[in-house]
Amino acid sequence: MTVLEKKACPFCPGSPETIGKTAPYWLPNAFPMLVPDAPSEVPFSEKHRTMPAKGYCEVVVESFDHRADLCDLTEEELKKAMLLYRDRYLELSRQEFVKAVLIFRNLGKTIGVSIEHPHSQIYAVPYVPPILLEEAEQSKHGCPVCSAYQDKERIIFEDELIVLYMPFAPRWPYEVHVTTKRHVTSLSDATEDELVHLGIAIGRIVGCYHHLFNVKMPYVLAFHQAPAANSDIKIHLHVELYPALRAPDKLKHWGGAELGFGAYTYDFAPEDKAEELKAICNKLDKLPISSKDIPEPQAVRWSLEFSRAEGVNSAAPWFSSSMLSAFG
């Protein structure tokens, strides 16, 4: 249990934050890094560009169940969650100063979550993050997403509307992307059927992650799409998932080449890892996929014990939502 949950989980039934709400629901982040009424005066710097910390930070709680990840939800519950993501994307896009709406999810103690109750987050920011700009620039020369899943050996599963695959050059051992087969640029551009199938695919792969090593898989999930509904910048809608484990008791860490130079190394053949995930997903093809009783990975327990022994904050992230732009 984290510090914020020692008294009571704010997302569980009975807390003040849940009064009058039905899941899924959204609420303002209680500890936002951006606020809509941020002071317009910012410290002046001749060397650096600065801007007010103006924006919105929201939390999306998909279930009142304190242990339910996305894979534990029914198809109908996932549909409602996807429609809520879409609606918040549209609403926040209407704010004049908002240039990008970022939808993401951090799960697991290793990721550094401050509240263990599974939830997603939405940041509406006054600039377009560099990774989205880079993807948009690449798209000018042909859609990289449309071409990415043409190599069938890396496809984990697909249906008539969506495809889930491992990228050609993943940065994480079991990194996967899921996208619509039709070239749509945002949640608001997708049909309801496409959103439903996208949500089901996300739920299934999250369940497969947890059953891969039979330990709870820490991960980050990020929606890549047009930065805002009214943006001229266009990107093929896709969701990227970055799981943190490379083995049941081993975390994947970025070293000097990756962090220092952006030169990402990969120790496996992505086709082999895709086959591992495909074998599990073929067995776990119906939602919900239970993850509630799956234990935390040994690597997490070791890191927490080490942190306590060294007097380090056990909730300190090895990467955090504030570093989201580094993980596009």
How many beta-strand elements?
A: 11
Helix-strand topology string: EEHEEHHEEEHEEEEHHH
SS strand fraction: 15-25%
CATH class term: Alpha Beta
CATH fold annotation: HIT family, subunit A
Biggest sheet architecture: 9 strands, antiparallel
Mean pLDDT: 89
User: What is the straight-line distance between the termini?
Assistant: 29 Å
- As for the number of domains, it is 1
The CATH architecture assignment turns out to be 2-Layer Sandwich
Form type? globular
Report the total helices.
7
- The side-by-side strand order for the widest beta sheet comes to 1-2-4-3-8-9-7-6-5
- Would you identify the regions where 5 or more consecutive residues have pLDDT less than 50? 310-328
* CATH fourth-tier homologous superfamily: HIT-like
> From the helix content, strand content and strand pairing, which structural class follows?
alpha+beta
Radius of gyration: 19 Å
Helix content: 25-40%
Oligomer: single chain
Index terms:
single chain, 328 residues, alpha+beta, HIT family, subunit A, nine-stranded antiparallel sheet, two-stranded antiparallel ribbon, 27% helix, 16% strand, globular, disordered C terminus
Mind sketching the topology for me?
Layout: E1 25-28, E2 56-61, H1 75-93, E3 100-107, E4 120-125, H2 130-139, H3 144-148, E5 155-158, E6 162-165, E7 176-180, H4 192-212, E8 219-224, E9 238-243, E10 245-247, E11 250-251, H5 256-261, H6 270-283, H7 298-310
Helix pairs in contact: 1-4, 4-6
